[in-house]
Automatic annotation (TrEMBL):
Matching InterPro entries: Thioredoxin-like_fold, Thioredoxin-like_sf
Domain Thioredoxin-like fold: 27-126
Signal peptide boundaries: none
Domain of life: Bacteria
Official protein name in the record: Thioredoxin family protein
Annotated organism of origin: Polluticaenibacter yanchengensis
Amino acid sequence: MLNNFLIVLVSVFSFLSSGKTEISSQAKKESKNVIVYFSGSDWCTICHQFSGRVIKDEKVSEVIKSNYVYYVADFPQKKKLAKEVASTNEFFADKLNEEGTFPKFVICDEEFNFIANIPSDATAESALTILKKYIKE
């Protein structure tokens, strides 16, 4: 009985931590930095404005797609996230967004160490400048 409990416990832990492990592995494999975008998809008006002005800009989205591993850490108020997604989001919040700022757009390395932040009032052009500066060669 105890052995079964330990197997289940280990399986649950592995499952809950797999999101961040996959992101880190992909970043290492592709030799890319990681972007974590903190958003409140169903309540944060500023997040929608930032996304429309910056993230959805054609040039910005192409630089992100080609040069970074991109993760959206969404913190909705009305919908419930799957446990593994919520766990990954909480990990990133604890590591990169302790103050709970929304929106927050963070560039970090494959071990999730902070490198830079793109401010919420950024333009697409200013975001591109920052993004291009931290592309791994």
